[in-house]
Amino acid sequence: MNRLGQITLVLISVLFSSFQTIMNHDRFFAVDFVIFTAIAWLAGWQYDRARFLEKKARDSEDSYRKLIDSLPRAVIIHQDNKVVYVNKEAITMVGANRKEDVIGTSIYNYLFPDYKERLDERLKQVKKEVHPLNNIEYKFKKLDGSSFIFEGSSLSITFGEKDAILSIGRDITERKEQTEQLLQKSEKLALLGQMAAGIAHEIRNPLTSIKGFIQLFKTATHKEEYYDIVLSELDRINDIVGEFLLLAKPTAAVFTEKDVKLLIKDVVTLINTQSILNNVQIFVEFECDLPMISCEENQLKQVFLNLLKNAIEAMPSGGNIDVRVKVKEEGKISIKIIDQGIGIPKDRIPTLGEPFYTTKEKGTGLGLMTCYKIIESHNGQLIIDSTVNEGTTIEVILPTITQRVFSLT
Predict the structure, then answer these.
(1) What does the alpha-carbon distance between residue 231 and residue 353 come to, in Å, rounded to a whole number?
(2) Rounded distance, CA 190 to CA 184, Å?
(3) 394 within a domain of the structure (yes/no)
(4) Residues 107, 108, 113, 114: is their CA dihedral positive or negative?
(5) What is the CATH number of the domain that holds 234?
(6) Is residue 85 part of a domain?
(7) pLDDT at 228
(8) Are residues 142 and 279 in the same domain?
(9) Which of 7, 221, 308, 390 falls between 20 and 30 A from 256, CA-CA?
(10) What is the number of domains present in the chain?
(11) Is 74 contained in some domain?
(12) Distance between CA atoms of residues 315 and 358, nearest Å
């Protein structure tokens, strides 16, 4: 530690005492000299220590900045939506020449409007998470107006003694394009072929019936019920096509913080009329102090409506459905739907969720496939357990939102 301040103050004390001795003919080693010199020594020591700690902190900050600048991922730190720090990779990513071109600008300057709501919810949730949020994609604009896909994670930190958000990620535009091309050539084509075959099979049966009855119409045989059957078969075709379009329709999911209790209650209210008509009672049991979840509300409601509808249809003679919601383990919540229906054979359970694999007489399997797809997009699990003639238990496991804020000093 440099002792320049300490030496300087002690010398000043000595010079002052010497001046007093010469001018006033006082004793040099008087009590005042000892006191002033001691004070100068202590004050100088404190001054030198403060300068040393300041230099150490500045060196440490410089080291951190060099480390962040050397990272191969883009790092952006923003406070109140204003960029306060970026590393070299982030500067290159947005097409800037220097940090000053980006620092001080709003993060919304680089975001496409369709993704604003997603980012707003993300910024609300990041302050409540202990760990960095999972990666999520945004469509960003470079300074020259061209677009790119940014995949990143965010974390609440302290920067410059103020709350801030650190986002780290990378430009995945090229990777995403390559992945989509590969999917088109492999998985998507395979799934398309499988679903096309299933749709052709499902639609052919009612078409055959319709064709037969139209041939009867050409004869003198015209019974009223024939028209009802033809209309019913046309409705059947329409339902199949409708389920397929619902599954294929792209949606921009906006995840918000929701209370799972309110969500379940809304769904039970919606389906209560159908359950009463089928002599089915739904009982709901919630554990106390359930944590919040991050979800796309309408998608999850669609999942629970499908699962409850399946449970009702599995009990043609009526019965009870139990819905039990509780904490599964730290960071996860469990929603179980338990029916007293006809059950599912064990060898059929692994095929559930595949298109046109169903245990229903007139089912398509697309509804359950949609449920699997939605739960997977929520980083959750859908588990089915069933015993023939006893009933089925479907458990949906979803991640929860933790409530403690994590910060770096």
Answers:
(1) 29
(2) 9
(3) yes
(4) positive
(5) 1.10.287.130
(6) yes
(7) 74
(8) no
(9) 308
(10) 4
(11) no
(12) 16
Query: Average pLDDT for consecutive 10-residue bins of the chain (409 residues)?
Result: 61 63 58 63 68 60 62 85 88 89 90 89 81 83 90 83 85 82 61 58 70 72 70 73 57 78 87 85 92 87 88 90 92 93 85 57 62 87 90 93 48
One domain for residues 256 and 274: yes
Q: According to the model, what pLDDT value does residue 196 have? A: 61
Burial of 131 (0-12, 13-18, 19+ CB in 10 A): exposed
Structural tokens at position 119: 């980012």
Same domain, 238 and 257: no
Residue 162 and residue 240 in one domain: no
Domain that residue 45 falls in: 4-68
Q: How remote is the C-alpha of 101 from its chain's centroid? A: 30
CB contact at 8 A, 282 and 268: yes
Last residue of a domain, one of 68, 99, 117: 68
Q: What is the pLDDT of residue 187?
A: 56
Q: Is 245 left (phi over 0), alpha (psi -120 to 50) or beta?
A: alpha
Residue with tokens 């030496």: 7
Q: Which of 223, 250, 277 is the last residue of a domain?
A: 250
Q: Which residues pair with 386 in a beta bridge?
A: 392
Same domain, 398 and 277: yes
| Residue at 180 is within a domain | no
pLDDT at residue 357, rounded to an integer: 46
- 130, 406 contact by CB (below 8 A): yes
109 in the same domain as 46: no
Same domain, 384 and 289: yes
